[in-house]
Amino acid sequence: MKKFRGKALAALLSLALIASSFPVTLASASTKHATGVLTDDPDNDEFWLVNGGDKDERSVTNFQDYIYVNGAAPLETADHQDVDDPEVYSISHVSGDKLVSWDIGDDDDDDDSGEVKLSLRKSDSEGDEVIAVLYKGTYTDDDDNEVSVTASTQITIHAVDENSTVIGDAGDMDGDYFADDGAMVVGTDSPELDGDDDDDDNFAEIATAANDYKAVSVFKAEKNADSCLAQWKAVPTVSENALEDEDDFIDQSPNDIYYVLESSNDDDLDVTSNGVSLIDGGKSGLTASATTSSKVVDFTNDTSNTYYAKEAGASSATTITAKAGTTAGSGMVTVSNIGDSVKVYSDSACENLVATYVYRAPLTSVATSASLDSDSGTLPSDLTLGAISTTATFTNASSTTAYNYYIGDALPASGNATGSIAVSDDTTTSTMDDGDKLFILAAADVTWTSTPTPLVTYTYNAAATAGDTGFSQFVYATVKNDAGTANITLKGKVTDAQEDNVADDDDIKSKVKIEKKAYANDTLASDDASYTIYKDSDNDYQLSYKADSSTAAATTEIDSGFVVKFVTDNGNFDLPDVTVNDDASLDGIKGYVGKLTIDDAKKVGTVDLKKGDVSVEDSDVKVDSITTKNNAVVSIDADNDVGAITIKDDDAGDSSVSMTSGSATSITSKGTVDLEGTEDDEPISVGTVKAQKISIDSDDGAVTVNSIVSSAPTDDEGGCTIELFGDQSTIKAIDFAGYGVDMQAEDFQGEIPAPENATADDAIFETTDEDDDITFTGDVDINAVTIEDDSKVVFNGKLSVDDLDGSGTMYIGANKLYVGDDASGVLVKVTDNTITAGSTIFTAATDTVDDDDLDFYGFTVKCNEGKSTDTFVVDQLQFAGLAMNKTSDKIVLNESATYTATAYAPGTSLPEGYSIEFDIDDNSGVFELTDNGNGTATVKCVDFDDVFSDENKATLEAYVVDEDGDEDEDYGMAECNLTALKTPEKTFTSDTNNDFTLASGATYQFKITDASAAPVMTAGTAGVVDIANVGKSGNDYFIKVTAKGAANAKTGIYVNGTKLLVITVGGVVCDTTTDITVKKGASYQYKVTASAAPTFGFGTAGVFTSQLVSHSGNNYFYKVTAVGAAGASTGVYVNGQKVNVAKVG
Questions:
Q1: Which residues have C-beta within 8 Å of that of residue 611, sequence separation ≥ 6?
Q2: Do 486 and 355 share a structural domain?
Q3: Backbone angles phi, psi at 10, to 5 degrees
Q4: Which of 321, 447, 810, 973 minimizes the number of CB atoms within 10 Å of its CB?
Q5: Three-class SS state of 60
Q6: Is 907 left (phi over 0), alpha (psi -120 to 50) or beta?
Q7: Contact 680, 659 (CB under 8 A)
Q8: The last residue of a domain, from among 981, 1009, 1028
Q9: Residue 576 pLDDT more than 90?
C-alpha cells in the first residue's frame, strides 16, 4: 500500500479487513464452484481519481488493466491448477465513502467481457473508499467438469478535487514533472510527504557524507488526457528563505510562481530555492548562490571582512573579497558533485570555520524541446518522423504511396487535408500550436464527407524555454549540522497570481520528521569498501568507513539507539560489507550492503535491507527481525533469539537461510531453509518455516518447528522438498500448500504430523534409509508413499494414498488404508489386536490392487470386489511373530510402565515350548528392565541425562525364544521406542495462565483443554481455595475455584501435577460474590468491607455505573445502576480483584 493523504486510512483499512472476513458466494447452487487464489499482489492497489465534469470525464475505461498490468490476473485454484480466461466478474463496496460506480462487460459478449469502466458517482466526489474486485475463471477437473474459480483482492480509491495541491517529494519525477511510478505513470501514486514511518518521507539526523536532503515541490492534481486518473504536476515553488519580504512576494509574485514553502524549524531543517543550502553557521551580509552553467557556488560579500572558501577536503581556498565602497565583494568555488559541501573560514589558514554550505543545483526553470506524443495507431513502415520544432518533418521512402495530414483539435465530419506527404521525398508540415492534434491520413483522404480513420494520431507539445524568474519547480529541504530529532511542518502559501488556479487557496501543510537515524552515504570508489559500527574506549558509538582496505577509516559519531541506513547502491562497485561489534547498540540497520555481520554487539534491532547477506555470530546481541531481498544468504550461527526472518523478491528461488542454533519467530523465503542442530545444549526453535526447499537435521541437536509450509516452486516441475534427518525433531504442522512436494526421511526417527494439502500429483513421502522410523499423527491424505527396505512408518490415523510402494514396513489400523491407484511390496502390520478372519484390512479403488500386491504380517487377504471400491479382508490367520501393546512410550523419571507382548496374528499361538523374552537396546542406564516371565515386562526410568538427549532414548524389544532359550529369528520381534522424561509432559492448555487475586468468597472458572484425559486440578496449600469440576464440552473441562482462605493467603494451582499459577485471597470482603442480573434502569447495592477506602469499578465500560452512597467504619456501600443494552455484562472489581459478574436483564 502506498502513501495516503489524510488520517482516515487506518480506520478505513480496519473496516476493510472486517468486511473482507465475510465470504461472498456469487455462484448459483447448480454451478460447480471452487475458491481460488491470486498468487501475486496487484501491480497497483491504490488509485487517485480527479473529480469534476460529466460521467465520461470522471471515468477510467479498462480499469482492470491498471490493477494487474494488461489485466493479467494470476488466478489459480487453491491447489494451484491453472485457470483459463481469468477476468473481473464482480466489484463490491467494502468500506469508506461510496465514491465509485462500475460497469463490467457482459459474459455473453466476448469483445468486452471482464472490461471495467470505473466512474466517480458525483462530480464533487471526495474521500476514500475500499472496493473488492472479484476475479473469475474456469478450469476442467479430473472428471471433465468445468469448474468456476473465484478469488478477490481489495483496491483503495481516493477521490480529490481537480487542481487540489499537496507538498510532495520531487526527487522522482520525469521531465514533464509528473509522478513517475514505473510502467504506470499516472493515477497510481501520490508524491505527498505525510510523515509516516516510510524512509522516503523523513530525514536522517546524521550523515557520513552530505547531509540528508530532499527536493520538495507543491504538486497539483490534474486529469489524465483520457481518464480521471490523477497526474500530479509539480508547480513552480520557492522557499521563504529566498525572499526578502514573503508577504510582498505573495502579493506581487511573477505569474508563474504558485507557492512559497517554509519550514516550521529553520534551525534543524533549512528550505531553500537558491540552489545552495546553509547548513551550519553563517555570517550576516555573506550570501551564496548557484550558477546556471556549472557546479559553481557564487558568494556575495556585503561586509568589510575578507573570507576564505573551499570545497570540503580541498587543499587550498578561494578568497571572498571584502566590500569596497558600494561594490560588494565576491568569490566562487567549483564543486565536484551536487550535494558537496563548501566551507567558509574567517582566516587564510582555514582554521576558524564560520559557515558551511551545500551545493544543490543551478537555478533555472526547465527548458524542453518540442515533441509529438503518439496517442494511437502505428506509423506506416515507409514513413519516418524526423525533426520537430513548430513543424514536423516526415520522410516517405515509398515511391508509390503518398499520405495526407490534418492539423486541428479533432478531425471534422467533413473537410480537407491540411497538406500531403509526397512520395520519395521529405515533407515538412504546417506550423502547429501547443496542444494541436496531428492526424496522419491515407492517400485517399484528401477531401471527405464523413470522418476518416487516421493511421496515427499525435499530440503536439511546444518547446518551453527557460523562464526569467530564476526559480525552478522545486526547493531543497536540507538537514543542518547539529540538528536534533524533530517534528517539522512544511507549509505552502499560494501566491495571489495563482490562487484561482488551485482548488483551495488555504495554506497546505505536510508533516515530516528528522529521525534518530544515520545515513551512510559515502561515494563508493572500490570493491572493498567497508563499514564498522562499534563503541569506542570513551563509550561513544562510532560509524567507521574505509574507502578501501588500505585507506584510514573515517568515523562519524552516532548515538545509542540510532537506525543506520546504507543508502548507496552503486552498480560500478561491490556493495560495502558492514560489521557491528564491540557492544554497539542500534535500533535498526537498513539499505544496501554486501554482507552484514553481527558479532559481539549489544543490539541491532530491526534489520531491513534492500540488498545484502546477513550473518548473526553472537548469542547475546538482540535482533528483532531480519528482512532482505533477492538471492540473499542469511545465517544464524549463534544461540540467539531473533524475530521474523524474511527474504523478499526471490522469484528465482536462489536465496537461503541457515540456522545452527537459536530461535526465530518465522522464516519466509522462496529459496532454501536449512535448520541443522549442532549442539545438544543449543537447540533450534522456529515458529513457521515457509520455503521451497526445507531441510531439518536434528542428528546432533534438537530442532523444533511449529509449522512447515511449502512455497510456490520456481518452475513447473515441482521442485519443493522437505528433508528430515536425525531423532530430535519436533514438528507440529506440515502444509504442502497444494504443491508437488517431495518429503524425504533419511536416518530420521520421530513423530511428524500428517501433511495438509498434499494431494497434488507430485506430492510424495518417502523413506530413504533403513534406519528411518517415523510415526505419522493424524489422518494422511497424499498422492504417493514410498517405504524403502527395512525402514518403518507408523500411521496413527488413516492413510489415503494413490500410489504405495517399497519394501519397508508400515503399521496402520484395520480399515484405515485406502489405495487409489497402485500398491506393491510394502509389508503391512495391522496395529489392531482384535482382527479375525473376515475383518476388513483396507480398501482400494476398483481393479487397482491385487490380493498379493502387498505383504501382510500374520495373515493373508482376499478381495471382495465392489462397483467403485474393492474391500480386502482377512482370509487366513497365521503366527508370524509378536506384537506389543505400544509401539512408543514416554516414562517420567522414577516412574514405571508395564508392556505386554502377544502372539500375532490374534488368535494364533506360539509354537509349543516357545516363550517370550524382553531386552532393551541402546540402553545407557536410563531405563531398568524387569522381565516378568509371562509375556510382560516392567520398565522403570531411573536416570535422566540433562546434557545429551540421545541418552534418554532406548528400544524395548520382545522376541520369540525356543525350548533352549535361543531367539528364533524366523519370527518377527515387537518393539516399543522409549523416551525418558524428567517431568511429566504438559498435555493441556488453560485459558488462564497468569497469577491473580480473588476476593474472599468470590469464584473463578477455568477452562482447561486436554485431548488425552480429564485434567486434575489441585491446590498446593490446603484451605485457601475450594476446587470443583462444573462441566465438560468435548475436550474442554470447566473447573471452578472459590476463595475461602484468610486475606492475602496464597496457593499454587496445579493441573496434572504441573504448576499453572498462584491465586492470592484478596484483602477485602464483598457481600456479593455470585453473579447477578439487574434490569436496565434498576440498581443494586454492594457492601465491601476493607481496612481502607477501596476502588470499585467494572471491566467493561458503559454497562453499569457506580456510586459510593455511604461509609460506616470498614463498610463501604456502592450502588450500581444498569445502563447498557439488555444482555450486556461486565466483571465487577474491587481493588482490581474480580468479585462477580453483573448482567443487564
A1: 569, 575, 592, 593, 628, 629, 630, 632
A2: yes
A3: -60, -50
A4: 447
A5: strand
A6: left
A7: no
A8: 981
A9: yes
- Which of the pair, 86 or 253, is modelled with greater confidence? 86
**How far is residue 240's CA from residue 479's CA, in Å, rounded to a whole number?**
16
pLDDT in tens, 393-435: 999 999 999 999 999 999 999 999 999 999 999 999 999 998 8
Bridge-based pairing of strands 953-961 and 915-921 is antiparallel
Confidence at 270, pLDDT banded by 50, 70, 90:
confident
- d(CA 1108, CA 821) in angstroms, rounded, equals 77
Q: How many CB atoms lie within 10 A of CB 797?
A: 14
Q: Is 16 helix (H, G, I), strand (E, B) or coil?
A: helix
Closest CA to 831 of 790, 876, 871, 792: 792
Render pLDDT for 425-463 as a digit per residue (tens, 0 to 9): 999 999 999 889 999 999 999 999 999 999 999 999 887
Could you give the CA distance from residue 804 to residue 936 in angstroms, rounded to a whole number?
35
Considering only CA atoms, which of 855, 848, 857 is closest in space to residue 879? 857
Distance, CA of 759 to chain centre: 27
CA distance linking residue 622 with residue 577, whole number of Å: 20
Report whether 1021 contacts 1050 (CB < 8 A).
yes
Strands, sheet with 276-281, edge to edge from the N-terminal-most edge strand? 276-281, 353-359, 341-345, 307-311, 318-320
Please state the pTM of the whole predicted model.
0.70
Surface-to-core class of residue 1012, CB atoms within 10 Å of its CB (0-12 exposed, 13-18 middle, 19+ buried)? exposed
The H or E element that residue 653 is part of is none
Cα 333 from Cα 311, distance rounded (Å): 7
Residue in the structure block whose three cell numbers are 487464489: 37
- Same domain? For 393 and 479 the reply is no
Is residue 240 within 8 Å of residue 370, measured between CB atoms?
no
- Whether residue 14 is predicted with pLDDT greater than 70 in this model: the reply is no
Residue for cell digits 502513501? 3
14 and 89 assigned to the same domain: yes
Q: Provide the H-helix boundaries in 820-940.
A: none
DSSP readout, 1008-1048?
Answer: EEESSS---EEESSTTSEEEEEEEEETTEEEEEEEE-S-TT
**C-alpha cell read off for 798:** 488413516
**1093 close to 1122: Cβ distance less than 8 angstroms:** no
Q: Which helix (H) or strand (E) holds 429?
A: none
What is the H or E stretch that residue 9 is in? Answer: helix 9-20
Cross-strand bridge partners of residue 406? 439
Q: Which helix (H) or strand (E) holds 732?
A: none
Same domain? 450 vs 474: no
Q: Pull the grid cell for residue 62.
A: 479498462
Please indicate, yes or no, if residue 688 is contained in any of the structural domains.
no
Spatial separation of the C-alpha atoms in residues 816 and 813, rounded to whole Å: 6
894 within some domain? yes
Q: Are 308 and 405 within one domain?
A: no
- Picking from 1029, 1020, 1005, the residue whose alpha carbon sits closest to that of residue 1062 is 1020
CB-CB neighbours of 807 under 10 Å: 15
> Does residue 175 lie within any of the structural domains?
no
Instruction: Look at residue 1083 and tell me if it is in a domain.
Output: yes
Q: Are residues 1091 and 1118 in the same domain?
A: yes
Based on the domain organization, do 254 and 132 belong to the same domain? no
CATH of the domain at 1133: 2.60.40.10
Q: For the ranges 99-103, 205-209, 452-456, 772-776, which has the lowest average pLDDT?
A: 205-209
Strand, helix or coil for residue 241: helix
Contact, 727 vs 699, CB < 8 A? yes
Coil/strand/helix, residue 579: strand
Residues 132 and 37 in one domain: yes
Evaluate whether 1087 touches 1105 at the Cβ level (below 8 Å): no
CATH number at residue 140: 2.60.40
Q: How many domains does the chain have?
A: 6
- Residue 1079 C-alpha from the chain's centroid: 48
Which amino acid appears at position 1043 of this protein? Answer: A
- Strand-pair partners of 154: 132
Is the peptide bond between 905 and the residue preceding it cis, with omega within 30 degrees of 0? yes
